[in-house]
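[Meeting: bench + compute handoff]

Bench side (C.D.) handed over the final construct sequence. Compute side (W.E.) agreed to return the predicted structure before the next meeting so the bench team could plan truncations. Sequence as handed over:
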Amino acid sequence: MLGYFLFSILALTSLIPNFSDDPYLTITSLALFSVLGIISFPARKNIADYEINSEAMPLVKSFMLRTLFSLFVINVLAIFLVKFDPNMPDGITESMRIYPMIMHAVLAILPIIVLVRMSSKIK
């Protein structure tokens, strides 16, 4: 989760200078990565370090599933933001857009892997 949080800070700081170019796209991106930063804010202790009673276990699993699915959706949306963003930085050509799209795809696939592993454990 720390990696997602640090990436959201990086994305937020790189989007602020583009506000004058396309304010609607910038506000959308800022909102998306703000939510990513809030969701992935690192906790002091790992959830596995807490003693959780059996009644609260379904609630914790539900929260984790929702958080992971939210990370997946945010990164899939970010793939489309990169694809359709008309204001890419000066050094990035149309053919180079694939690199940030691949990075977002990897960040989207990682929560899905955890979701699949968690769902196989639940059974």
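W.E. noted at the follow-up: Helices lie at 2-15, 23-39, 57-84, 98-122. C.D. will use this when planning the next construct.
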